[in-house]
Amino acid sequence: MKTMNRRYAVLLSVFICQVYTMLAQDCPSKQDLQNSIHQVHKLLSAQEASYLQSLRTLRKKLSLLQDSVAGRPTKAKNSTCPDLDAPVNGRKLGKILFPGHEVHFLCDVGFELVGSETRQCKDSLSWSGQQPVCRDIDECFSAPCANRGTCADEVNGFSCVCATGWAGPTCQSPTPTFFVTVANQSPVSAGAASAFIRPSRCSLVQGTTHCTCEPGFTISGRDSSVCTDIDECKLFHNGPAGRLCLHACVNTAGGYRCSCPAGYSVTPDGRNCKDIDECSSRQNNCTREQLCINTYGGFQCATVECPPIRNATYVKTSPVRCERNPCPVDSRSCSQAPDSVSFHYMSVVSKLSAPRVMFRLSAVRITGDTLRFALLGGRGRRHFSVQRSDRQTGELLLTSPVQGPATLDAELEMTELDKRELLGRYITKITIFVSPYEF
C-alpha cells in the first residue's frame, strides 16, 4: 500500500510539472510539490470520511431491510440491563439501561464508596463490576483531637472531649487563667451573678489574697470579687492577626462562637464556613427530570431541553448534550444549524479575581483547515471575552469581577471550515451562578 501511495505521489508530481511546462513556467520546487500533494491528501481524507459515513448508513439500512424481508426478529427495544438501585447513603447517576451505557455511583458526605464506581451494561444484558455500598467514614481514624483529647465519631463529623486546660473543636487552644493579687483583703464569697458576670475564686496565701476567674472572664476593675466576660468578638474579631470568624462572630459567656449564613456549616476548626452540598445530601427539591446544581450557599434546579431550531431536529444524547439528527440532502438551512448544543453549569464566589479562564472548548480531531471560536451572547456578556490557547482550543475569559448574587449566561461557538466551506458548528451554553459571599 505504501509503494502504491508513493507511486501515485510520483505520478502526481510529474503531472504537475508537465502542466507548468505547458504554461511555459519553470517546474515547481520540491517543497511546492510537497505542499500541493499534502493539500490533495487532505481533500481525499475529507472525501473518504464522508464516503465511509454514507456507506455505514447504507449498510445499516440494508441490514434492516434484509431482516424485514427474511422475517428475522429485530432486536427488541426493551432489551436492557436490569435497573440498578442507588446504594444506601448514596446516589446513582445515569438512567439509560441499553448495552454500552454506563451508570455511576456517588456517596453522601461522610461516607466512602466500596465497590465499583462505574458499571457498564454489557451485550449479555448484565452489568460489569460489583454493586457498590457507601460505608461510614471514621473521622476519628486520623486522631484529630490534640493534647490528649478523646474523639467521638459522628455522622459526617466528629467531636472532641478535651482534657483539663485545653479547649476548641480539636482541643488545640489552651484555656487562659486571669488573676490579680490583692494585699490586705479577705476572701470574698460567691454571690449571684448574671451569665456575663461571675464571682471570682479567691484564696488567702501568707496574708495575701489571690483571686482568679474562669476561662473567658477577667477581674472587673478594682473589685476583685467580680469577674466580667471578655468580649472576644469586640477585642479580636478584626485584629492584626486576622478575623476570628470568616463570617460572623457571636460573643458568649466565657468565649465566642462563629456562625455561618444559610447554606453553610461551620468547619471543624470552629472559625471557617464550608458550603453544604444540597445535591449530594439530598437537601433539595429538584425533580428527576432536572439537574441539581450545587452553588455556594444553596442550589439550583436546571431543566435541560434541546433547542427548537427551524428545519432541524435534535435528540438528547446525555443529560447535558443535544445532537442534531441527520439532515435531508437538499436542506441547506438544516446543515448550517449547530451539530450539537451542550450545557455547562458553574458555581463561583462573589468578586472572583479577574482576568481568569472559566471554560475551555477543544476540538478532538480537526478535518478542516480553519477552526474559529466566538462569543455569541448571553446575560452578563460584558464580563466575558474569548481567546485561543492553541490551534484546537478556545477559552472563555472572565474579564472583570462580579458582585453576587448574580446569574451569568454565555454562549460559546466553535466553527470548523474547510476552504471557507462550513463543516460543523458546536454550541456550548454556559451558566455561572455567583454567590452572595466571597467564600
TrEMBL record:
Pfam family, one: EGF
Disulfide bond positions: 107-134, 162-171
PROSITE patterns reported for this sequence: ASX_HYDROXYL (PS00010), EGF_1 (PS00022), EGF_2 (PS01186), EGF_3 (PS50026), EGF_CA (PS01187), SUSHI (PS50923)
InterPro entries reported for this sequence: cEGF, EGF, EGF-like_Ca-bd_dom, EGF-type_Asp/Asn_hydroxyl_site, EGF_Ca-bd_CS, Fibulin_C, Sushi/SCR/CCP_sf, Sushi_SCR_CCP_dom
Keywords: Calcium, Disulfide bond, EGF-like domain, Extracellular matrix, Glycoprotein, Repeat, Secreted, Signal, Sushi
Protein name as catalogued: Fibulin 7
Gene Ontology MF, one: calcium ion binding
Subcellular location: Secreted, Extracellular space, Extracellular matrix
Main location per the UniProt record: secreted
Gene3D superfamilies named among the record's database cross-references: Complement Module, domain 1 (2.10.70.10), Laminin (2.10.25.10)
Source organism of the structure: Onychostoma macrolepis
Highest taxon, organism lineage: Eukaryota
SUPFAM superfamilies named in the record: Complement control module/SCR domain, EGF/Laminin
EGF-like domain span: 136-172
Record-annotated Sushi domain positions: 79-136
Secretion signal, residue range per the UniProt entry: 1-24
Family statement drawn from the similarity comment of this UniProt entry: Belongs to the fibulin family.
